[in-house]
Amino acid sequence: MKIAITGGKGGTGKSTVATALAIELAKENKVLLIDADVDCPDDDIVLSIDTKKVKDVENMVPNFDKNKCIKCGRCSQVCKENAIVFVKGKIPFLVPEQCTGCKACEIACPVNAISEKKQIIGKILSGKKENVTLVTGEMKPGIEESSLIVNAVKKYIEPKEKNYDYIIIDTAAGTHCPVIAALLDVDLGIAVTEPTPLGNHDLKLILELMKELKVKSKVILNRSDIADKKEVEKTVKNFGIKIIAEIPYSKKIQEAYSKGIPVKHKAIKEIIKEIKEIK
Amino acid sequence: MKIAISSTGKGIESQIDARFGRCVYFVIAEVKDKKIEEIKSIENPSINVGGGAGISAAELVANEGVKAVITGNVGPRAISVFSQFGIKVYSTTGKVKDALDNFVEGKLEELNSATGPMGSGNKEFGRRGL
Question: What is the predicted ipTM?
């Protein structure tokens, strides 16, 4: 079973929940935890796992053959990312960080002057703790499109998926491409939120996205007692789903989190009960 | 020599636009023997692009054949395009006309690196400071 931990708003406790859930599930199951927050992955820190690089993530960027190029500028015109700069009478040049490797330039070039060159855009790391295998995607700073790394991580784990009972995917905040890439093909998306206007607003966005992607969704309310939860409850009801667990604000959780100890709370067991019912 | 100035309006009486990639207009001035010989203003089509505005705006002025750019702030990607084509960049504020006068007198200071991170000129779509 593949479960995404997401939420829209940043800092709601996605990584805290994802790591705690992974550790708890791993007591009786084989668990693979994926850190898909590739811009700033930190599940390894939360769990105090030493990860090692298992693979570089590469994409293809255009390489211009100066002898073949007729300086027509077609490559630059078709580049939706504005990654190819063309000035009349000059050989085009690439701003590599902007390139997503779509290869449109290669197709558009009328004289086959563009060949493919590899560019390293990130890496995949892995480590293990208490029966939990962690696979982390990490983007090279400055690269424009982080969903490329998320997709590379998903491709990397694909042949290994059958060895695990549960795959937990910790997504980035937001509702943009890397989050969409992480949510595609999951069996369940759990949105972690908090009872604040920001939490509620971003929850609506992520629930809307999951509806669009036809991903079954549930909600966890973290720091549930810091404000009135009426608005979040209203949102959840409007989407016809439910809050499967509430985690109150607690100093003990904060302390464990800052020491790199996975959080233990009875709410985690409640979440697992709900997950097993779905499975 | 040709100079491009990021501007909030058409003509040399306008104020310099502090943003390079997402400025409203480019005033292109032809300067010869310290005198302004010709002026034209072009709208910046990159103002509303999703990303890479600095790159496409730099491409535009490079295609105009300018040798120098006067602006307020400029990002790292535009800077890399300028250096590729040997275009010099100067940063100042105020009226376009005054900036041009200061430029021909050699009073403007040349920029060698970006004044801020990419996306800074985009209020609505740019990167939020995370």
Answer: 0.72
Nearest CA in chain A to B127: A144
Site from A9, A88, A95 to mutate, B interface, most B CB atoms within 10 angstroms: A95
* Nearest to A51, CA basis, from A59, A43, A61: A43
Q: Which residues of A touch B62 (CB under 8 A)?
A: 85, 87
> Which of B52, B63, B130 is nearest residue A87 as measured by Cβ atoms?
B63
Q: How far is CA B23 from the centre of its chain?
A: 8
Closest CA–CA distance from residue B66 to any residue of chain A (Å): 11
Among the listed residues B12, B24, B22, the one whose alpha carbon sits nearest the alpha carbon of residue B52: B22
Amino acid letter at A133?
T
pLDDT at A261: 81
| Average pLDDT score over chain A | 94
CA distance A113 to A70: 8
Cβ contact (<8 Å) for B51 and A98?
yes
SS3 A167: strand
Residue pair A79/A104 in contact by the 8 Å Cβ criterion: yes
Query: CB distance B52–A88 less than 8 Å?
Result: no
**pLDDT at A16 (0 to 100):** 93
Report the alpha-carbon distance of residue A178 to residue A180 in Å, rounded.
5
Q: Over the stretch A175-234, which tens digit does the pLDDT of each residue have? A: 999 999 999 999 999 999 999 999 999 999 999 999 999 999 999 999 999 999 999 999
**Does the domain made of B2-125 have the CATH classification 3.30.420.130?**
yes
Place of tokens 């708003």: A9
Only one residue has tokens 């002898």, namely: A67
Task: Enumerate residues 6+ apart whose C-beta is below 8 A from A11.
Answer: A173
Give CA–CA dist A6/A171, Å, rounded. 5
Give the Cα separation of A159 and A152 in Å (integer).
13
